[in-house]
Amino acid sequence: MHDTYKNKIVLVTGASRGIGKAIAYKFASQGAYVLGTATTEKSAQKISNNFKKKQLLGSGFVLNIAKKSSIEQFEKNIKDLDAPNILINNAGITQDNLLLRMKDDEWEDVIHTNLTGMFRMTKLCLRGMMKARFGRIINISSIVGLTGNPGQTNYSASKAGMIGFTRSLAKEVGSRGITVNAVAPGFIKTDMTDVLSDEVHESLLQHISLSRLGEPDEIASVVDFLASDRAAYITGQTISVNGGMYMG
After folding, report:
1. Which pLDDT band, with edges at 50, 70 and 90, does 1 fall under?
2. Predicted pLDDT of residue 200
């Protein structure tokens, strides 16, 4: 265990599985106190228990970033802790459908969760960062925010929106010592990709130069870099981590 992030408070949304879980452990194993969020009490408790089991600093909290009331409750729950110095906007949802068949709520739920949720969480953390004149905000976008994907107009729009948000906010807060960056993962080995059929999996690999899916820890390593002092002069950027699937 290193102490790179000793005395740092890191907030990771959607930290109970996949990429979010890997990011939460990456920071906790380097001495940070990690606030990991999940949408259910059971998952939030599991986050707390796992930190305790590994003798890491951190707690799980219930948070649905799509609900303003849930964010307000979360804010009350963390009021006795120091303000987060590092925010990882990772939580998000998909509701795939072709545009002609897409219902209004499938569009609105994805945009509201992925974009409005990120906006609200960033606003919640920004005041403390401005005051401290230090902050790291890292938004987890997606390869489809750069390339598009049939059946995912809602998700692609939300992930492309994250990139625009990242660039604009980076310009607003840079003078206060706050960097804002995005990471755009390709296809990563998580619960979401585990359900793909062998046929779809094989077809995907043909488009990936490295001929494999990525590991959650490979995303966490890039997030770790962007949050560290080594990346202090990087802001407003989107780092693609996709095994060469898209090189634009």
Report:
1. low
2. 86
Q: Pick the catalytic residue: 25, 155, 233, 246? A: 155
Q: Check the CA dihedral 109-112-114-120 and report its sign.
A: negative
pLDDT at residue 192 tops 80: no
Look up 155 and say whether it is catalytic. Answer: yes
Give the amino acid at 218.
E
**Beta strand 58-62 with 238-241: parallel, antiparallel or unpaired?**
unpaired
What whole-number distance in Å separates Cα of residue 16 and Cα of residue 46?
Answer: 8
Structure token pair of residue 220: 């966490």
* Average pLDDT along the chain: 96
Could you tell me where the DSSP H helices lie in the chain? 18-28, 41-53, 68-77, 104-111, 117-132, 144-147, 153-173, 191-194, 198-205, 216-227
- Give the mean pLDDT of 168-190: 97
Of 86, 160, 70, 85, nearest in space to 120 by CA: 70
